[in-house]
Amino acid sequence: MEHNFVAKVHSVVHEHDIHQPWIFKSTSSVVTGTVFFVRGRDVGLPRVEKVGITNAHVVESNRSHQCRVIQNGVVLGTFRVVRICPTEMLDFAVLVPVTNECSLTTVQVGMHPLRSGEPVMIPGYPYDSDCCQCAYGSISAHGDGYWMQCNVASNLGNSGGPLIHTKTGKVHGIVTQSPAGSESITEVLPMWVLVS
Hints:
Blueprint: E1 6-13, E2 29-39, E3 50-54, H1 56-59, E4 66-71, E5 74-86, E6 91-97, E7 119-124, E8 133-142, E9 148-150, E10 162-165, E11 171-177, E12 186-190, H2 192-195
Antiparallel strand pairs: 1-2, 1-4, 2-3, 3-6, 4-5, 5-6, 7-8, 7-10, 8-9, 9-12, 10-11, 11-12
Protein backbone atom coordinates (compact mmCIF):
# COMPACT_ATOMS: atom_id res chain seq x y z
CA MET A 1 0.00 0.00 0.00
CA GLU A 2 1.37 3.39 -1.00
CA HIS A 3 1.00 6.26 1.44
CA ASN A 4 1.00 9.28 -0.90
CA PHE A 5 -1.65 10.89 1.30
CA VAL A 6 0.80 11.23 4.22
CA ALA A 7 3.51 13.89 4.54
CA LYS A 8 5.66 15.72 7.07
CA VAL A 9 4.46 19.11 8.26
CA HIS A 10 6.91 21.83 9.36
CA SER A 11 5.50 24.56 11.53
CA VAL A 12 8.03 27.25 12.34
CA VAL A 13 7.69 29.32 15.48
CA HIS A 14 9.24 32.80 15.72
CA GLU A 15 11.00 34.49 12.81
CA HIS A 16 10.86 32.60 9.55
CA ASP A 17 9.87 33.38 5.99
CA ILE A 18 7.65 30.56 4.74
CA HIS A 19 8.39 31.64 1.15
CA GLN A 20 12.08 30.93 1.71
CA PRO A 21 11.93 27.59 3.54
CA TRP A 22 15.69 27.13 3.46
CA ILE A 23 16.27 30.22 5.62
CA PHE A 24 16.14 29.83 9.40
CA LYS A 25 17.13 32.51 11.85
CA SER A 26 18.80 31.75 15.14
CA THR A 27 15.53 32.54 16.94
CA SER A 28 13.51 30.06 14.85
CA SER A 29 12.20 26.83 16.27
CA VAL A 30 10.79 24.11 14.03
CA VAL A 31 7.96 21.86 15.21
CA THR A 32 7.42 18.82 13.01
CA GLY A 33 4.64 16.31 12.82
CA THR A 34 2.69 14.27 10.33
CA VAL A 35 -0.21 15.43 8.17
CA PHE A 36 -2.59 13.38 6.03
CA PHE A 37 -5.00 14.44 3.31
CA VAL A 38 -8.71 13.77 2.86
CA ARG A 39 -11.44 15.20 0.64
CA GLY A 40 -12.83 18.42 2.07
CA ARG A 41 -16.43 17.23 1.78
CA ASP A 42 -15.64 14.24 4.01
CA VAL A 43 -14.89 16.57 6.93
CA GLY A 44 -17.54 19.24 6.37
CA LEU A 45 -15.64 21.50 3.95
CA PRO A 46 -17.37 20.84 0.60
CA ARG A 47 -15.83 23.87 -1.15
CA VAL A 48 -12.26 22.63 -0.65
CA GLU A 49 -11.07 19.71 -2.76
CA LYS A 50 -8.33 18.46 -0.40
CA VAL A 51 -7.56 19.30 3.21
CA GLY A 52 -4.75 18.29 5.50
CA ILE A 53 -5.44 16.95 8.98
CA THR A 54 -2.90 17.08 11.81
CA ASN A 55 -2.75 17.79 15.54
CA ALA A 56 -3.31 21.29 16.87
CA HIS A 57 -0.19 21.01 19.03
CA VAL A 58 1.91 20.67 15.87
CA VAL A 59 0.79 24.03 14.41
CA GLU A 60 -0.80 26.08 17.21
CA SER A 61 2.28 28.22 18.01
CA ASN A 62 2.94 29.14 14.39
CA ARG A 63 3.12 32.92 14.07
CA SER A 64 2.22 33.11 10.37
CA HIS A 65 -0.65 30.56 10.50
CA GLN A 66 1.09 28.86 7.61
CA CYS A 67 3.24 25.77 7.42
CA ARG A 68 4.98 23.79 4.74
CA VAL A 69 4.35 20.21 3.74
CA ILE A 70 7.24 17.93 2.78
CA GLN A 71 7.12 14.44 1.34
CA ASN A 72 10.26 12.31 1.03
CA GLY A 73 12.47 15.37 1.40
CA VAL A 74 10.64 17.46 -1.23
CA VAL A 75 8.73 20.63 -0.24
CA LEU A 76 5.25 20.26 -1.77
CA GLY A 77 3.93 23.66 -0.85
CA THR A 78 2.66 26.10 1.71
CA PHE A 79 -0.52 25.41 3.66
CA ARG A 80 -2.73 27.68 5.73
CA VAL A 81 -4.23 26.67 9.09
CA VAL A 82 -7.99 27.23 8.68
CA ARG A 83 -9.41 25.37 11.68
CA ILE A 84 -7.81 24.56 14.98
CA CYS A 85 -9.13 22.96 18.13
CA PRO A 86 -6.33 23.12 20.68
CA THR A 87 -8.21 21.71 23.65
CA GLU A 88 -6.74 18.69 25.37
CA MET A 89 -9.80 16.64 24.42
CA LEU A 90 -9.91 17.67 20.74
CA ASP A 91 -6.37 18.13 19.50
CA PHE A 92 -6.78 18.65 15.74
CA ALA A 93 -6.14 21.21 13.01
CA VAL A 94 -7.24 21.52 9.38
CA LEU A 95 -4.89 22.83 6.67
CA VAL A 96 -5.62 23.97 3.11
CA PRO A 97 -3.12 24.67 0.33
CA VAL A 98 -2.35 28.33 -0.30
CA THR A 99 -2.64 27.63 -4.04
CA ASN A 100 -5.14 25.25 -5.60
CA GLU A 101 -2.40 22.93 -6.78
CA CYS A 102 -1.80 20.00 -4.46
CA SER A 103 -0.16 16.85 -5.80
CA LEU A 104 -0.99 14.77 -2.73
CA THR A 105 -3.61 12.05 -2.96
CA THR A 106 -6.40 11.62 -0.41
CA VAL A 107 -7.42 8.74 1.82
CA GLN A 108 -11.01 7.64 2.43
CA VAL A 109 -12.51 8.46 5.81
CA GLY A 110 -14.06 5.76 7.97
CA MET A 111 -16.57 7.06 10.51
CA HIS A 112 -17.70 3.90 12.27
CA PRO A 113 -15.94 3.03 15.55
CA LEU A 114 -13.35 0.29 15.45
CA ARG A 115 -13.72 -2.65 17.82
CA SER A 116 -10.96 -3.97 20.03
CA GLY A 117 -8.71 -6.36 18.14
CA GLU A 118 -9.20 -4.81 14.70
CA PRO A 119 -5.89 -4.48 12.81
CA VAL A 120 -4.51 -0.96 12.29
CA MET A 121 -1.38 0.79 11.12
CA ILE A 122 0.17 4.22 11.65
CA PRO A 123 2.11 5.66 8.70
CA GLY A 124 4.06 8.77 9.61
CA TYR A 125 7.22 10.79 9.70
CA PRO A 126 9.07 10.31 12.99
CA TYR A 127 11.23 13.23 14.07
CA ASP A 128 14.43 13.58 12.02
CA SER A 129 13.15 11.17 9.35
CA ASP A 130 12.55 12.26 5.76
CA CYS A 131 10.74 9.09 4.71
CA CYS A 132 7.42 7.61 5.74
CA GLN A 133 7.58 4.76 8.23
CA CYS A 134 4.76 2.43 9.29
CA ALA A 135 3.94 0.72 12.57
CA TYR A 136 1.37 -2.07 12.86
CA GLY A 137 -0.86 -3.31 15.69
CA SER A 138 -4.49 -3.44 16.72
CA ILE A 139 -7.12 -1.49 18.61
CA SER A 140 -6.64 -2.39 22.26
CA ALA A 141 -9.23 -0.33 24.13
CA HIS A 142 -11.46 2.70 24.16
CA GLY A 143 -10.42 5.38 26.64
CA ASP A 144 -12.35 8.10 28.41
CA GLY A 145 -14.52 10.30 26.23
CA TYR A 146 -13.69 10.06 22.56
CA TRP A 147 -10.34 8.31 22.64
CA MET A 148 -9.34 5.02 21.07
CA GLN A 149 -6.17 3.25 22.13
CA CYS A 150 -4.02 0.97 20.02
CA ASN A 151 -1.05 -1.20 20.91
CA VAL A 152 1.24 0.58 18.45
CA ALA A 153 4.34 2.49 19.51
CA SER A 154 4.42 5.99 18.04
CA ASN A 155 7.40 8.33 18.03
CA LEU A 156 7.92 12.08 18.22
CA GLY A 157 6.87 13.36 14.81
CA ASN A 158 4.06 10.84 14.40
CA SER A 159 1.66 13.35 15.98
CA GLY A 160 -1.11 14.25 13.56
CA GLY A 161 -0.75 11.13 11.43
CA PRO A 162 -3.58 8.80 10.40
CA LEU A 163 -4.75 5.60 12.05
CA ILE A 164 -5.49 3.30 9.10
CA HIS A 165 -7.67 0.18 9.25
CA THR A 166 -5.46 -2.32 7.43
CA LYS A 167 -8.39 -4.28 5.98
CA THR A 168 -10.24 -1.34 4.41
CA GLY A 169 -7.43 1.21 3.94
CA LYS A 170 -9.64 3.93 5.47
CA VAL A 171 -8.49 6.47 8.05
CA HIS A 172 -10.37 6.18 11.35
CA GLY A 173 -8.43 8.52 13.60
CA ILE A 174 -5.70 11.07 14.26
CA VAL A 175 -2.63 9.87 16.15
CA THR A 176 -2.26 12.21 19.10
CA GLN A 177 -0.21 11.00 22.04
CA SER A 178 1.10 8.18 24.15
CA PRO A 179 -0.12 8.17 27.75
CA ALA A 180 2.55 9.19 30.25
CA GLY A 181 4.63 6.23 31.38
CA SER A 182 3.16 3.85 28.82
CA GLU A 183 5.01 1.69 26.35
CA SER A 184 3.63 0.76 22.94
CA ILE A 185 0.28 2.46 23.50
CA THR A 186 -0.95 5.31 21.34
CA GLU A 187 -4.10 7.36 21.86
CA VAL A 188 -6.09 8.30 18.79
CA LEU A 189 -8.85 10.85 18.21
CA PRO A 190 -11.65 9.35 16.05
CA MET A 191 -12.34 11.02 12.69
CA TRP A 192 -16.04 11.52 13.45
CA VAL A 193 -15.07 14.14 16.04
CA LEU A 194 -14.01 16.51 13.23
CA VAL A 195 -17.46 16.66 11.68
CA SER A 196 -19.68 16.40 14.75
